[in-house]
Design goal:
Helix 1 (5-14) packs across helix 4 (91-104). Helices cover 44% and strands 0% of the residues. The protein has a single domain, classed as Lysozyme (Orthogonal Bundle). With 127 residues, the protein is mainly α. The chain has helices at 5-14, 45-67, 73-81, 91-104. The protein is globular and about 35 Å long. It has 4 helices and no strands.
Amino acid sequence: MAMDRWTALAMIESANRDAAVGRVGEITRYQIRPELWPGGNPRDAHAALLIAQRIMTARIDAFQQSHRRAPSDFEFYVLWNAPGQINHPHRAVAERAHRFVNLVVDTDSSTSSPAPGPAASIARRTG
């Protein structure tokens, strides 16, 4: 069964652990960099989701303006993890993006596509 993007993102980033702290201080189940965290309880899953969605709204808007389309699931993950690499993600980022896509794509659905590459265009739900 496919996951929505936010559930898959939390799974990839922290295994859904609200108390997770990354190696450069990222917090929440979404591993939000400390300089992007506006304050509040990072262990509050609902608050973390709202902040993650706010961060991604700006990134998705910029992507849509420059690429004239919505990001694929692969691109969504790259925008989250390494937005500066959106057109040419490093190998490690691309590998995680493919794992993310595999969590989001419903392989039982006839309308789903296999794990897309960075240039693929799949209009997907964002939450």
